[in-house]
Amino acid sequence: MKYVILGTAGHIDHGKSSLVKALTGIDPDRLKEEKERGITIDLGFADLSYPDGLRIGIVDVPGHERLVRNMLAGAGGIDLVLLVIAADEGIMPQSKEHLAICDLLKIKSGLIAITKADLVEKDWLEMVISEAKDFAKDTFLEGCEIVPVSLKTSYNIDFLKEKIREVALKVKPKPSEGLFRLPIDRVFTLKGFGTVVTGTALSGSISIDDAVEILPAGIKSKVRGLQSHGETIKTAYAGQRVALNLQGIQKEDIQRGDVLAVPDRLKPTTAVDAEIELLRSAPVLKNRDLIHFYIGTSELTGRIILYNRPELEPNSRAYCQIRLNEPVIAMSGDRYIIRRFSPLETIGGGEILDPSPKRRRKGEGLDDLVVFKEASLKEKLSMKILKDAMAGSTISTLGGWIKAELPAIKEAIETLIKNSEVMQFEDRLLHKKTFTTFQKKVNAFIEDFHKKYPLKIGVPKEDLRAIFKGLDHKLFGSLLSTIKEIAIEKEFVRAKSFRASWSGVDTALKEKIIGILEKAAFQPPLKDELSTTLSISQKDLDDILRLMSKEGSLVRINDSLFITASDYSKMMEAVKNFFRENNEMTVAEFRDILNTSRKYALPFLEHLDSNKITLRVGDKRKFLGKPCLPESK
Starting from the edge strand earliest in sequence, which strands make up the sheet with 492-495, in order? Predict the structure, then answer.
């Protein structure tokens, strides 16, 4: 089956709802007040089915100028328009505003119906038809079918049905493999069922028992039931009018303008970068003007920030940022409408280019917006990944950023990776330019560090990560491991070509340390005591002791205890000789063979245990193998 949404448009009392009823047998006016007053106040819905499987959902919108906001709530998901003009009145103000809105939303197909044909003479009807042709020039309706009808006599009603079918069959389907998204236009409660929401599925599909999220509030729920045009269904698809029965949600938690989507894919935003287009009839739009902003079924207020210009003339285009007073759900490629803050009138609209923009520095270029507007999907995704910088992108977040089929997004990303334009680190995507910048910054920082601290074996990883604020720990590790010019040794990072050197350090100090430790033998001063004796800071002493351990003149027992390599060899030989004649060794026996105290015997034994030279069994030690020097640390 093919699903298409048709929206009515036109001035108040030109017969839109009556024409829908004549075409479908369904009265779209559902409110008591609408029945009493004979005008559509809110959105009405009906459907038209054809034997070949074509199913057309009809959104009937109000024509009164004060109710254009309701009309806009129904216009977002429309595929084709039926513009209704009454033969006895001709083109009227709301005819113009509705057509302008549909044109700004880039609806591509439609027809014009001239109602009340029975009320006018033939010559008058021909004049109105000619007027309608002129009215449609330079819009998406130029050259469209114009069908005069009479609801009273049913003149041309079947013919109009057939013409609607012909136009609908040419409509490009909504993205069925896109992310499921449904702007909510109605919320109500049904006894025995609970909360029900309705809307037009803009993309993707949803099934009973699927998890959903109501945005921007972020409320999670589950689909209990689905209907489309009064029929119970198991799965709803893009292009259908859908009613969803939601689990565990109160009616008061939802409102028109909210968006129903798959969980954790779409992010609310209070600012969007966009292209804006003003109507010919619009006033001059000035930088920082307040406006009413409409997208999907949402209506918000915000402020226009024009890029690189103080104002925008009528019938002109520009790039801008729209800063909103409340969060909204938008995707790159969505269309929007703006109206004057006061008095209320439609003045323009355009396309969302980036729903997650950053504030631009003065004089910053707009190259990214040109790409988002004009380039291919692959190029748009590449630019978005580049803009996400060190934070990186994921396939999931990109699927919620741009209006496109998910398989097409995946294919474009695979091409970018294959062409080495984008790099993948587990689930994160980074642009090659971002990685190159990261690589240069890391190498420069390490080179500078080595110059300043020639004794240090390398930069502590966390110190290096601190220069990239907020960078995920796991991603940072993956990025580091990709840089060929560096070596990672536990918690330190150094240039591969670097070796800690004694240049600039008094060699006599090194000899003095060895002399102090050799004299003390197996009762050496602890690091803080050694620092005091040598009158140097513990921080500087750390570097010296680490370097001496690295070159092999000292052996690190623990963070505070070091002995000379020669004393370490003596200890190993003493242990080896003891175990030639004994199977087990106590702490006291070990203390005695080294001629030391329990204070030192215990850390020495713990060191032997950790290096798998001895094994502690209760209060005794067993020998595990041939004694050897541990790896330098």
Answer: 459-460, 492-495, 486-489
